Amino acid sequence: MKTSIPEQVSAEELADFLGVTPKTVRNHADRGVVVRSGRGKYLTSASIRNLLADAKKASRSNGLDAEQLALVREKRKAAELRNAEAEGRLIELAEAEEVLDLIVATFRVGLGALPARITRDVALRKQIKAECDGTLIDASRKFHDFAKNPPTHTPATKENDDDE
Questions:
Q1: What single DSSP character describes residue 40?
Q2: Number of H helices, E strands in the chain
Q3: Is 47 exposed, middle or buried (0-12, 13-18, 19+ CB in 10 A)?
Q4: Cα(160)–Cα(77) distance, rounded to whole angstroms?
């Protein structure tokens, strides 16, 4: 059977036929999927067959690749947690809450005493106290929001996820 498709075409012609860019054609050629027949020339039939086979293979492996990637990420996360624990970078939640409570209490006491330490003017003290109370309320809201929606990354995994 005789076809009207030429045996050899340029990257531009093959790209136009496939609906891609010439760079994509050259990239596939570099991977060995598109078959070069000479400088700037490509075998049409063999290249199309290879592209179809490559696409079929890729579509079969996509689901598996996603599962493998998820498994690798979980293993990496577990290893990072083990390493952080071994290096003493992890602390128990109760210990963290205790430290945070001490810091917040110190902050609240310091803000509460601030107006009296700054001025003897009662009106100005009230104004400063109102500002300090507003800051405490803002901080309280942020703590509440954080408690409802904690971050999904630990500091160790966040750094690595940004690289992807």
A1: T
A2: 6, 3
A3: buried
A4: 10
Which secondary-structure segment (H or E) carries 37?
A: strand 36-38
Identity of the amino acid at 8: Q
Can you tell me the distance from the alpha carbon of 110 to that of 103, in angstroms, rounded to the nearest whole number? 11
What is d(CA 35, CA 58) in angstroms, rounded to the nearest whole number? 19
Name, in order, each residue with C-beta under 8 angstroms of 40's C-beta and a sequence gap of 6 or more: 10, 11
Six-digit token pair at 124? 């100005």
| Residue 60 to residue 38: CA distance in whole angstroms | 32
Better pLDDT: 145 or 155: 145
Confidence of residue 151 (pLDDT cuts 50, 70, 90): confident
d(CA 93, CA 73): 24
